[in-house]
Structures are given as C-alpha cells and as structure tokens.
Write a structure and sequence with these properties.
39% helix, Glutaredoxin, alpha+beta, four-stranded antiparallel beta sheet, 2 domains, globular
C-alpha cells in the first residue's frame, strides 16, 4: 500500500512538472505560410516559422527545451508571430517546398513584409534562440516598407522606366475597389512631374513584380496561395495604411535579372493578369 501511494505521489509530481512546462512553452499558431505572412504584415511583427514533424527527434528536443524556456516563450509571445508548420501535412509540405527547406528542424525568420532575414537548419538551445530573436527584432523588420511602383512595361530597359513612390502628393483617398489589378491603383494617383521622377534604380537593388493590391485580409491569404502555386515564385506582402485603412501589396520576387522578370510577366499575361515592376 505504501509503495502504491509513493508511486501515485511521484506520478502527481511528474504531472505537475509537465503541466508547468506546458504552461510556459511557446504557443505556436498553426497557419499556412500565406496566412502567416499576411498575419505578420497585419500585426507589423517579424515572423518565426518552425518547420517540424512528429517523427523528428531534434524537433521534439527543441519543443521540450528551447521552446519550453520561459524567456524564449515570453519574448516570442510579445515580439513575434510564432508559427509551427508540420511538413507531413499537405499544406505544410507545399510550404516546405516553397521555402526550400531541406532539413528538420528548420527555423526561418521573415520580416513584416514577408522577406526571409534568417535561416537555420539545426537545433538551437534556449540561449542561442533568445540571441537570434533579439538580433532580428528590429524596427526595420517590424514595419513593411512603402511600396514603390513603376509604370507597366513591356521592354525591361530600365533607362526608360519611370519609378513613382506613394507619398504626400498622392490623392487623399484610394478606392478599395482596386483589387486584382495593380494598374488601377496607379491610375488613381496623380502623374509625376518631371522633377519628381526618380532615376533608374542601381542594379544592386532587388526587383520584384507587384501582382495585386488588396484591402481584404482574407483575399490576401487566398491570392498569395494562388500566385505561389501557379507561378512558382515566393510572394511578399507589403502593407500601407491610407486614411485609416490598410492595403496589402503582393510582390513576387526577388528577380535576379531582367530576363527572369520578363518571363514572369509573360506568364502573367498568358493568364490575363497584369504586373508592375517594383523595388524590394
């Protein structure tokens, strides 16, 4: 009887210890890559994605040690959007392929506009994890940059490309009925005066193609999934608030060469879609 009571006592202590660990553990969101990017842009927070699987022992080790650490958990909860993606699920596998994940565990940090700023394909202990989180928790990674537009082009000779930037000289209102066609948004803005034209960007700047402007959060999620699956290119999200309403600009890229951009534009055109060249 005494042995049985002792065993029950040990089980109770173990249960309380486990419950205490779970209480302090990171509470991951379970979202798709597109949903996670859209949510991070909405919150204006950096995004941590933990690619994992139930059979991955190093992943389990990080769950029990790194992500159970109270400091790591508190920092992620207050400063980041933390998402876990199971690569054995259909959507998780697709997201793994989109991000080029080859090993587990893989940890990726995206800034608020959906661009990867950190990638690590091994385990990190709690101290290392906290250092990484603090390093990439910067104002630049929290705020999605303003979208920079170019006029629609067919010839990608950048010397003939005029670049416009949203600013104080734009109309006070932008219609919410611009979804699915980024050219409609540009049509609502005033033409640039010659003095406000910006010279062609240096070749060191990364270029992308804006494929849509949306005011609906749900639309953002659907369209990111559509463009990434259809055209096999990562889509970033840049947000901007105008008159109290947030607009999400979806930008495919980056592209390394004009030829790559032309190929993507041609693919869009075949599907009856339009794109605008932008800087990232």
């Amino acid at each position: 009887m005494k042995k049985l009571s002792l065993l029950k006592g040990l089980l109770l202590v173990f249960s309380l210890f486990t419950a205490s660990q779970n209480l302090h553990a990171v509470q991951f969101e379970h979202l798709s890559l597109a949903e996670a990017k859209a949510r991070a842009a909405q919150l204006q927070r950096p995004l941590l994605i933990h690619f994992a699987a139930n059979w991955c022992l190093p992943c389990q080790w990080m769950d029990k040690n790194t992500f159970a650490d109270p400091e790591v958990s508190a920092y992620l909860s207050n400063q980041y959007l933390a998402v876990k993606i199971d690569v054995d699920e259909v959507q998780g596998y697709a997201d793994k392929e989109t991000c080029g994940v080859k090993y587990l565990p893989s940890l990726l940090i995206f800034n608020a506009s959906g661009i990867v700023v950190f990638r690590y394909e091994e385990t990190l202990d709690a101290v290392q994890m906290l250092e990484v989180l603090q390093k990439y928790d910067t104002p630049a990674n929290r705020i999605a940059p303003r979208a920079v537009y170019t006029v629609p082009v067919v010839n990608l000779n950048t010397s003939n490309t005029v670049i416009a930037q949203i600013g104080e000289n734009d109309p006070a209102t932008i219609s919410a009925k611009v979804e699915d066609d980024p050219a409609q948004l540009d049509a609502q803005r005033r033409p640039l005066s010659p003095s406000s034209a910006i010279p062609a960007m240096p070749t060191s700047r990364k270029m992308g193609i804006q494929v849509g402007v949306y005011s609906s959060y749900e639309n953002v999620i659907r369209q990111v999934q559509f463009f990434e699956k259809k055209f096999y290119k990562t889509v970033h999200i840049s947000s901007q608030t105008t008159n109290g309403e947030t607009y999400y600009h979806l930008i495919a890229g980056p592209f390394e060469t004009p030829a790559q951009m032309q190929t993507y534009l041609n693919a869009l055109q075949k599907d009856g879609l339009k794109g605008l060249i932008v800087t990232l």
